[in-house]
Amino acid sequence: MIRVVLADDEAMMRAGVAAILAADAGIEVVAEASDGREAVSQVLATHPDVVLLDIRMPGLDGLGAAAEIRRLLPATGVIMLTTFGEDDYIERALSLGAGGFLLKSGDPRELLAGIHAVAGGAAFLSPKVAQRVIARLSGGQLARAAAARERIAALTPREREVLTLLGSGLSNADIAAKMFVVEGTVKAHVSTILTRLGAKNRVQAAITAYEAGLVGGDAAASTP
């Protein structure tokens, strides 16, 4: 069972999202919050697998709450859920270590897929967000590619193989199956990869894989 904390300052929006999540027998909403500070408190009290955070909330906003949660409980996956798709929000969320970024206007199935992905150690960006990320990566592509290739040069061939599969959208379990190793080995490789790349999460690592040419653009921006 995936345990979720849901934070949004609009009661009707919380009710709507909770109803969508209730349709999935594998997801349980363990707490709700109406602002960022309350969200942090609920996460500390319940230790959920995933927290869904609206970006614009009174007091401590979703981005501030994400930073606190990542600092205090890094094992909890963070998904930003918002009506806004501006690039600065996306970049700030990813830089804080969010594992997912979803638009409220998206398909409800994206919400469920995103929660399962982040809870499973993968990452997920809604298609519209993925398009924005790819568009921004297109600018200064040569410089980014050179920097990315320099970063991945520190990886062993095995770690580069894991990074390629991670960037292609595979979960730890899927990578383990393809490489014929146990999932714990993959987790260890992923942890080392993130450290060597200076990446805060799988999304950032996948972007590096894309920039270095290890995988195609769509896979790097959206890793379900």
Automatic annotation (TrEMBL):
All copies of the HTH luxR-type domain together span 148-213
Q: Which GO terms describe its molecular function?
A: DNA binding
Which positions does the record annotate as the modified residue 4-aspartylphosphate? Answer: D54
Coiled-coil annotation reads none
Q: Which UniProt keywords apply?
A: DNA-binding, Phosphoprotein, Transcription, Transcription regulation
Which PROSITE patterns does UniProt cross-reference here?
HTH_LUXR_2 (PS50043), RESPONSE_REGULATORY (PS50110)
Native species of this protein? Amycolatopsis rifamycinica
**What residues does the Response regulatory domain cover?**
3-119
Q: Output the superkingdom of the source species.
A: Bacteria
Q: What does the record list as GO biological process? A: phosphorelay signal transduction system; regulation of DNA-templated transcription
In Swiss-Prot or TrEMBL terms, this protein is called LuxR family transcriptional regulator
